[in-house]
Structures are given as C-alpha cells and as structure tokens.
Amino acid sequence: MGGNMSRTLIVERDVETPMRDGVILRADVYRLADAGPLPVLLQRTPYGKNFSQNAFALLAAERGYAVVIQDTRGRWSSDGDGYPFIHEMADGHDTVMWAACQPWANGAVGMFGGSYVGFTQLAAAVMQPPPLKAIVPAVTFCDPYRIMFAGGALALGAAVSWNLVAGAQMAIMRSPAPPEEKERWTDQLVALADGMARGETFTRRPLDELPLIGRGGIAPFFADLLAHQAHDDYWQPITCAHDRITVPALHIGGWYDIFAASTVSDFAAILRNGGSATARISQRLLMGPWLHGPMEGLVGQVDFGLRASSLLVLPDEIQLRWFDHWLRGIPNGMMDEPPVRIFVMGTNEWRDEQEWPLARGQYTRYYLHSGGAANSRRGDGGLNPQAPAEESADAFLYDPRHPTPTRGGGLCCWSAAIPGGAFDQREIEDRFDVLVYTSPPLEHDLEVTGPLEVHLWAASSATDTDFTAKLVDVGPCGFARNIQDGIIRASYRAATDQPQPIKPSEVYHYVIALGATSNVFQAGHRIRLEISSSNFPRYNRNPNTGGPLGQETVLRPAMQTVFHDASRPSHIVLPIIPRAV
Fold it and tell me: Do 520 and 445 contact (CB within 8 A), yes or no?
C-alpha cells in the first residue's frame, strides 16, 4: 500500500536488534519493497512502537526512507530490565550501528521524536556512532536533573504522573507476579490516577510511601529521585554532555512546553561547545507557542491563530527537508535559512533570527515597588525600571496546607488534572499569599524575547522554604496571561550539589530562573510579576521544616518577607528587543 500504487510498502514487525550485552530489543521497520539501499530514520520509544508516530513513518517510507521504530529496553516488546535514561546511550549507539548495517540500509542514519524519545536521540549522539548523521530532538532535554528539579524543587506533577503511567503500568504488565497481585497493583494504579484528577494523589504524605512508585515499590525511579535531590554522582551517567555531541540537530520546542528552557539552552550550548565543527555550525532552532504535545494554535485559554498550527507549520515536512539535506545530500536550501525561527506571542507572528539569545537584546531591570501592601492584585504593588529608594517590605504567610495552586504553564503528563498553557491568572492573584507587582499601561509595544530572571531579596521564618515568580501579560480588560514561571528552594540557592539551610529572619539574595519566552506586551497592556512560595502541584510544596525530601509528614506555616529598597532592589530582568516605531 502507499501513495503510489505501483510501489509496495512493507512493514516488518518485531525485528530483533541485539545489544552489546546480549539483550534483544525489537523494532518495526517501514520501507518500500522495491527500493535500493535507503537512508534510515530511527525512533527509540518507551511508549510502544505500535502507538508511536506511524503516520510519519508511512510518509517517510514513501519518500524513500527506511523507518525503524524500536521499543526501548524493558518496554513493551523489548527484553531486559527497564530503568529511565541509564541504558539509552549504549543502546542508542548499538541500534544505530545495527540499523546502518542492514541490507536495506545505505549506512546513513537520522533520528527523530519528542520528549523522552528526543532524549534517546541526544543520548545516542553522545556516543558518536559514525552512521548517525543528523537528529531532530523535539520538546526534550539533555539534563534529566534540570527537568526533575527546578531550582532544587521537585517537579512533582510530572514526576508522579510519568512514573505512574510510564513506570508502574509497565512494571505491572511485565511482572511475573501472580494474577491476584497484579490485580491489586492495578487497583492501586487506577486509584492513584483518579486521585491525580482530584488533586488527592499529590497531597499524600510522606511522598516516599506512595503505592507502586514509593520506597520499595515496583517502579523504583520515583523513590530514587527523592533520594537524589542534590545534583550528585547519580545524575552524571544519564546527562548528555553538549561537548560530546558532534551531529547537526534541529531542536523543536514550545514556549509553554515543560522543557522550553532546555530546548533553547541545549541549542545554544551545542552551537557554542559542540564536539565537532559541524555541530557548532549546524544547530537549528524552531520555537512555537506550543504545549508539550501537538503543535496547535490553541494553547490553554489563548488561541495564537492558524499561523501557529501544524496545518501551516507542517512539522513533518520540516523534518523531512532536514533529513533530505543531511542523509540524502539534496540541495534544498535548508542550511541557507536563518538558524533560528521563533513565534512571537502577542503579535502572533513568526520571525527568523541569526542567534539565540538575540544579540540586540537590552537586558533591563524592572524593579518591585510598594508601600508594604502588595498582597493580591488589589494591593499597591508596582513594577517599573526606576530603582527603589527606601520602601516598606511586603510580607505574606505561606501555609503549605493551603498552597498556591498551579494554573497553566509548562506542564507535562497530567493534563487531565490541570491543563498546561496560557490561562487567566486573576483567581491566583486574588490570594493574599501572592504578592503582585504591576506596571502602568504601556504607551508603546514592548517586546521581551530571551531568558528571564528574577532577583529577590527575601527572608523567611523557616529554615528552608520556596520562593516562586511568574511573569504575566495583563490585557486592557484585565485578562492576566501567564508567560513564564520559576521557583527556587532556599536551601539550593547557592549550589544544586550542596544544599545549605537558611537562618530564620536573615535576608538572602535569591535568583529565580523563569526560562525563556518571546512575547510582545502590546500598548495598553501591563507587565505583572507575581511572587509567592508555591506552585502546587507543578512543584512539591515545601513543608518549611528542612527535612529530607519525600519523608516529611509535618507541614509548618512560614512568614515570608520580600524587600525592595536601595540596598535590596528586588527586580526582574527583561530581555527587551528594540522595535521599529
């Protein structure tokens, strides 16, 4: 079958691919029966080759590629014991070498796919198998630690949901346990999944006693995360070093994707420090307004229009052009185009750029101001480029029993509970434990494109706590669209490998990374910054006790104080892009 009835497309199922340690992984191979040796496109997935991007596999096969979709180790049809990340470098290398040597292959291999599947590409590239010529890592990351822990805080929603669905479910399916035991586990899994939708699963404590994925559970990765909150030696073997990547890569991401910051920083790091001259000149970046999922214009409550939709973006065609250039040597002009293409929200337009971050960015401080009553959007918090003089500090009570809830943002894996994307934040900003600082209405459009960072001088009554920040675009009618957000755990303020408790009531300087964006705050809109101490359940709530992660059972309120005066000028750094008047 195929678009051309004179050609036959064949699919070989469960083709065995041996690894260096003798473990057999299995793959499906899509190719034209009457074609000569073909370039190979490889996808390695933990989510089941039968449920993968089969439409793209068929399209690519009809366009003259052999497409290999493989179940990763310990998953679905493949043998071995599955554990996230640890086998992907060696198994990726061995699979690339195997694919290149097949009788239907011409020796050139490319890789594609998103999320964890994107990580498997970067992991294989680190091993530098000679047949690997190009990759397309989408909505993904090089450093799992940075994904699981943001500023030292556990990405709770993603960690729990992913380990339940991708970890515990597979462990139950593959377990040799008696049927009645597997049925009991399945009942627990269903209860936990239902509990996520109601918010109950995330509030259970201690976390390391969660059924199935907690300490001693059938899927151990979550418990291991809790035991390795610090950036210790556990993480080194599963981190993809940028200077080991030697191949061209087309990085695809979305501003509302959970991995947006990693997408842009990995692109820039490989361009700067890649392991070959080719890698250092052959990285490309495509950033839309998208979520961690389909490339569509509707992102949460905001529709960015048809220009942002896959109907016009044509991601399959972009990938095939990339592979046509690097695997088939077709002179299609792919590498003559600017290396960076970004979607500018607010004006909702695509724009080509020569670098990331943009060289013309003017990093401008917008300072927090108030008369000491910035609590909620009805308070007196202001935001502008004028440095503060002597001003009263703002204070709020952070009670982990009633944390500030997550509303939109870059989320993953648990959209049934709380959807990600762009949402009106006014309900959050009505809370007294959220400090709100808002600029006057803008007289002219103001573009912010690049990395975002908040510098906060703050004190707490606790020995450990969190501070959160969120950048918001407020429209003339009051709709408050979240742009990006971030968090810092106080004990991880100085280093991720050596946590240090804080002294109650002592003032510390915190730096909160908010990731990156491209957004035009239009004339008449206002720039807003929210400061609080929780974003739950996107991140685990800090119990304010300083105890070991996952073992806490006691939740203690903490009084938080945020300073903004001449010696402690709390501010957000905005990368402002000059716009033609």
Answer: yes
Please tell me the distance from the alpha carbon of residue 291 to that of residue 288, in angstroms, as a whole number. 9
Task: Check 231, 292, 369, 455 and give the catalytic one.
Answer: 292
* CA trace torsion 444, 449, 450, 454 (10° rounding): 40
What confidence tens digit (pLDDT) does each residue in 252-278 have?
Answer: 999 999 999 999 999 999 999 999 999
Classify strands 298-299 and 24-32 as parallel, antiparallel or unpaired: unpaired
Verify that 418 and 345 share a domain, yes or no.
no
Full-prediction pTM beyond 0.90?
Answer: yes
Same-domain status, 447 and 560: yes
Is 93 marked active-site?
Answer: no
181 within some domain: yes
Count each helix (H run) and each strand (E run) in the chain, helices first: 14, 25
In a domain, 144, yes or no: no
Is 575 a residue whose pLDDT tops 60?
yes
Non-local CB neighbours of 103 within 8 Å, separated by 6+ positions: 37
Active-site entry in 71, 94, 143, 257: 257
Known active-site residue 187: no
188 SS3 class: helix
Most distant CA pair in the chain, distance: 80
Supply the CATH number for residue 38's domain: 3.40.50.1820
Cα-Cα-Cα-Cα dihedral of 184, 186, 188, 190, to 10°? -150
For 483-501, the pLDDT digits (tens) are 999 999 999 999 999 999 9
Tell me if 20 sits within 8 A of 41, measured CB to CB: no
Orientation of helix 88-100 relative to helix 116-126, angle to 10°: 80
Give the Cβ contact number of residue 573 at 10 Å: 17
3-state secondary structure 161-180: HHHHHHHHHHHHHHCCCCHH
Tell me: do 382 and 349 sit in the same domain: no
Tell me which amino acid residue 391 is.
Answer: E
Annotated catalytic, 292? yes
Name the residue range of residue 570's domain.
362-577
Q: Is the dihedral of CA 347, 418, 171, 259 positive or negative?
A: positive
The pLDDT score that the predictor gives to residue 415 is 79
Q: Mean of the pLDDT values across residues 183-196?
A: 96
DSSP for 376-425 reads: STTS--EEESSPP-S---EEEEE-TTSPPBP-SBSB-S-TTTS--BB-B-
How many structural domains does the chain have? Answer: 4
Q: Which of the residues 115, 265, 309, 439 is marked catalytic?
A: 115
